[in-house]
Input
Amino acid sequence: MLLGLSMVMVAVPDVLAGLESAELVRVLPRWWADAGAISLYYASRHLLPAKTRFFIDFLIEAFKREDYARRFAGNLG
Output
């Protein structure tokens, strides 16, 4: 529940919908912390199971389609 009573430092993906709908406001837009890259690790590229390859391709396309790289960037205000 949003009561307008506090400030918090959280990862952009956790509050993206609220920021884009203006339900939440970035109080200090130039102040942010980088939590690091979003990475996907798997054992090997050789003999990669079809389900794993499909999942990787799905994530890549979703990030491109939804423009997550730009939208998740903490340094954009």
